[in-house]
Structures are given as structure tokens and as C-alpha cells.
Design goal:
heterodimer; A: 254 residues; alpha/beta; Rossmann fold; eight-stranded mixed sheet; two-stranded antiparallel sheet; 8 helices; 10 strands; 30% helix; B: 573 residues; Pyruvate-ferredoxin Oxidoreductase, domain 3; 3 domains; 19 helices; globular
């Protein structure tokens, strides 16, 4: 049989995200990617952490597991290692992955377990109403940093590259087609494939909304970026101000 | 046959091969058809501090150590100063002839042996002095030298022929020295007997074996004394057992990975001690909420905090019983013997699958790291129960992962199975797994989950009194305290006090007949290895039983049977 996009979508349930939330793009792109690959939804396990975006498994008609805050990665690793036939996809946010769960992020990369890691990165903790996340910009004023954040953001892509991640990509919620394409490659990748997804939080991080990203994102695959060059990948990962590279930064096949 | 036995202590500095010496003497007892119980007292260092091992050898099965010694092998000065004080009158101490004696203890027999010189005469290094001492002991015990040679050769086989040869020579040198010098000093006879319990195992090994036999296919852990030998054993045997074994970055990863594997349908376990368990508690609640089977071994050491890593205690009962926020089903078991470490770990996997919840098995350092000889587990008596798997059951209407069943147990589909796509979540949820906050349904879902505990309780084996049912005194205990309590009964009997034991193996839920059993007790005495009498409080909560007499030890050391019997005597008067 062949699978249609709606076969992956749990019917009669509408996501409870804010209008304009970047998570919609992730949801649509994931559904499209699975459909394009014609993956049986019963063979898919989507593991969410805790956060707005991490609720995504609720809206997918697959096997869906909402784990603990920060622990989606080890939970997903257990699923995959116990049954390697499953397609295991983690959906978690920047607080989940780069804050409370950062240790798991690094060690999962070392382990190189064959899972897909989708991290919605919006610079804030949306579900707890807008505190600064580890990727928030220095000086950013939030309820937990009323006089401005004192330190620089974490660079998760650079961290992933230097930790030895073999599939490092950045997507953008304003380009669902590119995102679906990245997801397809990530799901097919033999090893841990990681996509950081820039997604505006329209409610709590208005300075970094669609207009901010729209002018800055540059699809690396439309440039001469050599994806198998680790140093060039690191160079791209470190460019975060004027132009923000998207697409695959680094790819190292087995 | 008359029950006889003797208790040997080997003391020395960490790194001097004290453990190997004890293991070889225990091996000799087993080869001779006898039984042993081996326990250790170690400092939390790798080299240099004083450690000792005790080998309690008996013609019958031995379930604990004894504080009274018959023979001491002193490989360092501190053994000579301290440990020999526990020798019985007429007890023997083998020691380095060159070591200085402080004030000699009267009533014991010193057997100075030039251990280092004898090693040197054979061309060996000083490290072999313990094997010379074994040679002396073999002679004193009137054991079969051939069997001793077999044990020594087996121990060093992996290190090559030369190492075996020099060790055998050291053994021979000690044996001959004793033959010549201590010929009038032979209180023991380790004659050849027909005992057939040849498997030398620790509580941790037996727990690991229980997991293997239960079909556990996934194990993830972070090293924490005294649970680490479980990780070592399972890692070493991973290819034979087909288990996926992972040393991961922390305890959070360890338990969440095991939960992920349990969700995917593999039988999964993690192991830790109290500190690691504290880190795991949020995930214990996750397994309870999402209804995912997982087994956790908690090998206790004394807390609080980092506490005493290499010592023993029973201070974590309340931590485990109350792990995690909110109410959720959590089954807690506590083996009392090394055999039960196998039996209850095996059973833990059945219970986790049947009730789709976390199951914690509580061991402690004394039980986990003590050794004894047992029979090989008999596979024919073991049965695996995987619980309600939806794929094996007739479909009834639309599938709901958290269907409100009368017994609380909703059939589960495993990911990958065609008809069972569903949501499982750490959030509160409706029958379909979707998040849900309606008050009546929240209450109903709580009740459904907790019904599993009632169902489990109705199926637990009854608790019974161990020993004479009409004894005047009942020792109430849980976990490793059972062993010393069991040995204490024998001492008390010799002194005319008839006592029995109420051992609680199922701590949550507790067996249904417990109330009835405790209501008939004449003189209950609580024996527990913690400050606050945690089981005592639990029994009061669950049954109303108030125990006045308590024997509590929180020194970081196991109970010795003699300590229990002394205190019981003073309480009975």
C-alpha cells in the first residue's frame, strides 16, 4: 500500500500552538518527509521531550512517546537499541536539548546511534513563558533575565561538529520544503542525524521573528559549501550574525 | 551429621591480594564439598588501606558471617593489632615472622611464618606472600593439598604457566613450613565431603543471572559502588546472553534508556546505588505514569549523600518507596539471601511486564558483594510472564492504550506492530493517551493505575514465619539482615530462646496476609540497618503494629549474628 500525508496525521486533533508558531512547519515537513519516503507509520516512533515543540508527537499518527524534560534523547536511544527496525525520531526544543539535556546530546553524538534528532531552536522557553534558553542572545531581556542576559549563547552546531556528529544540518521554519528535504536525508542517514531548526517564537521572542531570519538565512546547498569538510562546516557553524547558513553543514558517510 | 564450621579472616592492605586469598580459601572449601559465606570490609581506596575478608566455612549452608574468628591470616600489621581481638580463645593467627607484635593477646596462638623469606627462597616476588599463607592454612585445616593446588592453578591459569608454577611453589613452601613447625596445632579438619553446591556467586552476580534468565535484553548503567559488579558481569557475558549492555553518561540516561527499551518491548534493567537512584527518581515516576515496564536494582550503601561507598546499610527503603512525585504503582522487592537475589530479580521482570510499571529490587553491599556457594539455577522451574500484550489478545473495539480496565492493566501494543499506533506520555492522559485535564477523567485514570497495585497484591505469595510458628520472639527484618538473623536463631536456640523470623520480601505492595500474621506475634523485635527503623514505620503505617524493641545498626557494617542474639537476650529478660 502507499501512504498519504494524512496517514501520518492524527485526525480530529489540532495542534495547540500559537498561530504563526514555527512548530507548524516542523510538523508539516516531518509528515511530508515520512510520506515521501513511504515509511510505514507503525514503524515510526516519535519521542518528544517537554516543551511546546516537543508536543509534536501528539499530532502524529505514529507510535508517539512524550518522555521527560531533557530525557527524550536517551529514551529514544533505548527504543532504537531495543528494536533497530524502528525509525526513531526525537523532537525536542533548545531548552530540552541544549539546557537540561545537554549531556545526553553530546553522548548520543558519541554513541552515533541511528536516530534522527530534530531540535526546535527559538531562543526561549516557550511553555514556561519566555525565559532565556541556552541559545538566547547576550543582552536579551526575558522574565528570568530582566536586566539582560549576561553571557553568550551556546553554539550547538559547532558543538555537534567538534563532538564528531556526522550529520549536522540547520533548517528554518520559514522554509518547510527545505526542512522536509533535510529530514528525508536525516531519516535515511546511517547514524545520528541532527537538525537544528530555527523557529521564531511569535509570542515570547519577537525580536527574532520571521523578518529577522528571512533576511539572513542562506541555503548552503545553493553555494559551493563542501559538506564533507569538517573545518569548513565548523566555519559555517560559527557564522551566526550577518548571514545564517542553513542546509547541511557537515556530512560524513560511514 | 554434626554441623561444624570455622571462620577465617584475611586482613591486609588494599592491593595486597587479600580478596584473591579469600576467594581461593572459599574455593578450597567448595572443592572439598563444604559451604562458605564470604564477606568483605573495605576502605574506599584502591591501594594502601587496611581491608579484610572473612570466609565463614561450614558443613551446612552458611547465610552470614560471624564476628567470632577461628583463624586469622595477617598480611599487614593492622590485622595483628585489631582483627585478632575477635579470635576465639585458642584461635590461630598466621603472620609474617618479621612483623612486630604489640602487646600479645592472651589465649590465642601466634604462628609466625617467614612469608617473605619463603617466597624469596622460591625466587618469587613479595606479592606471593599471601599464597604462602594459604599453604600454611591448608596444612592447619588438614585440607587436601591436591585440591588446594587445583584451586590455585585455576586462579592463575590466565596469567600463564610460569605464574601458575611459582604460585604452586609458594603454596607448597607454606604447606611444608607448617607441616614442620606447627604440627601440634591442628584444631580443624576440612575433610572431603559430598556437598554439591559448586556455583560460587555474589548477590550481585545472582541478580545479574536472574536478569539474564528472565530474558533481559537491555541494560544501561552508570558505575556506582556497590552496584558496579552487576554492570561488569553483564558486560562480560553480553555476547552469550544476547544482552545490549551500555555504560552511559549518567544515571538519568541509564534509566531513561532502559525505559525506552522497555517501551519498545525489550525486558530492560538498570542498576545503581542510593545516590544514583536519587537521580533516577523522576524517571521512576515516568515509567509509572506512562505505564512502561522497567527493572531497577538498587544496591544500597550507607548515606546520606556520598556516604560510605564501600560499606553496607539499609537506609534507602523510604527513598525507594517514595521515589518520584505523585502517586503511581511501583513494586518494591527485597531479597534476603544470595539465592533470593536471583529469584526476586527474575520475578521482578515478570511483575514489571504484568503490571506495566517500574519494579525496584533492593539489595545492599552486604548482600550484593558477599559470596557463597549455590546450586546452578534450575531453568525448569522458571516461567516467564509477559503480561497483557494486545497483539496476542482478541481486538475489542477501538484500541485505547490506557483503557480503564477493571484490574487496572490495559493491553499494550509494542511499537512496530501494525494495529496499535498510540500515544504514551509522561503527561496525564485519557484512555487514548492524549493529554487530558478533565477532573473526573483524571481521577479515573489515577484510580486505574493504582488498581494495578491492588491486583498485584491479591496475587502475591503469602508471608510466613520462618522457624517455629509458636516461638515467643519474632525477629522482623527485610533484605540482607535476614542472613545474620537466621544465624542468630541458631545461637538463641542453644541458649534456650525460641525465636522465629518475619522477613518482608514484598515491600510494596505488601502481602495481604501480613496484617493477620503480625497480629499474632507475641514479642516482635525489629532488626534493621538504618537509624530510623524504616520498615518498623512502614509496618505501623500498613498494619498498625507498633514494635517497641528495635535492634538498629547504622554503623556502615552488617549485623553479626552474635550482636543480634546478645541484644535479643537483653530484650527477652
Amino acid at each position: 500500500m502507499s501512504w498519504l500525508p494524512n496517514d501520518y496525521f492524527r485526525d480530529q486533533r489540532k495542534p495547540n500552538w500559537c498561530p504563526g508558531c514555527g512548530n507548524y512547519a516542523t510538523l508539516v515537513a516531518l509528515r511530508q518527509a515520512l510520506c515521501d519516503l513511504q515509511i510505514d507509520p507503525a514503524s515510526v516512533v516519535i519521542v518528544g521531550g517537554i516543551g511546546c515543540g516537543a508536543n509534536l508527537p501528539y499530532w502524529m499518527d505514529t507510535y508517539s512517546l512524550i518522555a521527560l524534560h531533557g530525557r527524550a534523547i536517551p529514551t529514544a536511544m533505548g527504543v532504537k537499541l531495543a528494536n533497530p527496525k524502528l525509525h526513531v525520531i526525537v523532537v525536542a526544543g533548545d531548552g530540552d536539548t541544549y539546557g537540561i539535556g545537554l549531556g545526553h546530546f553530546i553522548h548520543a553524538i558519541r554513541n552515533d546511534v541511528n536516530i534522527t534528532l530534530l531540535v526546535g531552536n527559538n531562543g526561549v522557553y516557550g511553555l514556561t513563558k519566555g525565559q532565556a534558553s541556552p541559545t538566547a542572545k547576550k543582552g536579551q531581556m526575558t522574565p528570568s533575565t530582566p536586566r539582560g542576559l549576561l553571557y553568550d549563547p551556546l553554539n550547538p552546531l559547532a558543538l555537534a561538529i567538534t563532538t564528531g556528529c556526522r550529520f549536522v544540518a540547520r533548517g528554518y521554519a520559514g522554509d518547510a520544503d527545505q526542512l522536509a528535504d533535510l529530514m528525508k536525508q536525516a531519516i535515511n542517514f546511517d547514524g545520528l542525524a541532527y537538525i537544528d531548526i530555527l523557529q521564531p517564537c511569535v509570542k515570547y521572542n519577537k525580536n527574532f521573528g520571521y523578518p529577522y531570519y528571512q533576511d539572513r538565512v542562506v541555503d548552503l546547498q545553493k553555494t559551493a559549501h563542501p559538506v564533507q569538510n569538517r573545518m569548513m562546516a565548523l566555519d559555517a557553524a560559527l557564522r551566526v550574525e550577518e548571514k545564517i547558513p542553513t542546509g547541511i553543514l557537515f556530512l560524513e558517510p560511514k | 551429621m554434626i554441623k561444624i564450621g570455622f571462620n577465617i579472616l584475611i586482613g591486609g592492605k588494599a592491593g595486597e591480594g587479600v580478596d584473591v586469598t579469600a576467594q581461593m580459601l572459599a574455593g578450597l572449601a567448595v572443592e572439598s564439598g563444604w559451604n562458605f559465606f564470604l564477606n568483605s570490609e573495605l576502605h574506599n581506596v584502591i591501594k594502601g588501606y587496611h581491608n579484610f575478608y572473612q570466609v565463614n566455612v561450614g558443613s551446612e549452608m552458611v547465610l552470614g558471617h560471624s564476628s567470632k574468628l577461628d583463624l586469622v591470616i595477617a598480611l599487614d600489621q593492622e590485622t595483628l593489632f585489631e582483627d585478632i581481638k575477635r579470635l576465639k580463645p585458642g584461635g590461630l593467627v598466621i603472620h609474617e615472622a618479621a612483623d612486630q607484635l604489640m602487646t600479645p593477646v592472651s589465649g590465642i596462638i601466634y604462628l609466625p611464618t617467614p612469608l617473605k623469606e619463603l617466597v624469596k627462597s622460591k625466587g618469587g616476588g613479595e606479592v606471593l606472600k599471601n599464597v604462602v599463607a594459604i599453604g600454611v592454612a591448608v596444612n592447619l585445616l588438614q585440607a587436601d593439598l591436591f585440591l588446594a593446588q587445583k584451586v590455585v592453578a585455576a586462579r592463575f591459569k590466565r596469567k600463564g604457566e610460569d605464574v601458575v608454577k611459582i604460585n604452586l611453589e609458594a603454596l607448597q613452601a607454606g604447606y611444608e613450613y607448617a607441616e614442620k613447625m606447627f604440627f601440634n596445632c591442628r584444631p580443624f579438619k576440612l575433610y572431603s565431603a559430598t556437598g554439591d553446591q559448586k556455583l560460587m556467586v555474589s548477590g550481585n552476580t545472582m541478580a545479574a543471572l536472574g536478569a539474564i534468565k528472565a530474558g533481559c535484553k537491555f541494560f544501561s548503567a552508570y558505575p556506582m559502588t556497590p552496584s558496579t559488579s552487576v554492570l561488569h558481569y553483564l558486560a562480560e557475558h553480553a555476547s552469550e546472553s544476547g544482552m545490549s549492555v551500555h555504560h552511559v553518561e549518567d544515571e538519568l540516561a541509564a534509566i531513561n534508556m532502559a525505559i525506552g527499551a522497555g517501551y519498545a518491548g525489550a525486558r530492560a534493567m538498570t542498576a545503581t546505588s542510593g545516590g544514583g537512584y536519587a537521580l533516577m527518581t523522576e524517571a521512576v515516576g515516568f515509567a509509572g505514569m506512562a505505564e512502561i515496564p522497567v527493572v531497577i536494582l538498587e544496591v544500597q550503601r550507607p548515606g546520606p549523600s556520598t556516604g560510605l561507598p564501600t560499606r553496607t546499610g539499609q537506609g534507602d527503603l523510604r527513598q525507594v518507596l517514595h521515589a518520584g512525585q505523585g502517586d503511581f504503582p511501583h513494586i518494591v522487592l527485597a531479597p534476603g539471601t544470595i539465592q533470593e537475589a536471583f529469584d526476586l530479580t527474575f520475578e521482578a521482570f515478570n511483575l514489571a511486564d504484568q503490571y506495566q510499571c517500574p519494579v525496584t529490587v533492593l539489595l545492599d553491599k552486604y548482600l550484593g558483594e558477599s559470596w557463597m556457594n549455590l546450586k546452578e539455577p534450575d531453568d525448569r522451574t522458571l516461567s516467564i510472564r509477559r503480561g497483557k500484550l494486545a497483539a496476542d489478545l482478541p481486538a475489542v473495539g477501538e484500541y485505547k492504550r490506557y483503557k480503564l480496565e477493571a484490574d487496572g492493566i490495559s493491553p499494550r501494543y509494542l511499537p512496530g506492530q501494525a494495529d496499535g499506533r498510540h500515544i504514551q506520555a509522561s503527561y496525564e492522559h485519557g484512555e487514548d493517551g492524549f493529554f487530558m485535564e478533565r477532573p473526573e477523567e483524571v481521577s479515573a485514570m489515577n484510580e486505574k493505575r493504582m488498581r494495578k497495585i491492588a491486583t498485584c497484591q491479591s496475587q502475591l505469595p503469602s508471608v510466613h514465619l520462618d522457624g517455629s510458628p509458636d516461638a515467643g520472639v519474632t525477629l522482623i527484618c527485610w533484605g540482607s539482615t535476614y542472613g545474620p538473623a537466621h544465624e542468630a536463631l541458631k545461637i538463641l536456640e542453644q541458649e534456650g530462646i525460641r525465636a522465629n523470623i518475619l522477613q518482608i520480601k514484598y515491600l510494596n505492595p505488601m502481602p495481604l496476609n501480613l496484617q493477620q500474621v503480625v497480629s499474632g506475634l507475641k514479642h516482635p523485635i525489629l532488626v534493621e540497618g538504618n537509624f530510623s527503623g524504616q520498615l518498623g514505620g512502614l509496618l505501623r503505617e500498613k498494619t498498625g503494629l507498633e514494635i517497641k524493641d528495635k535492634i538498629l545498626d547504622f554503623s556502615g557494617r552488617p549485623f553479626a549474628p552474635e550482636e543480634i542474639s546478645e541484644q535479643v537476650k537483653s530484650m527477652v529478660k
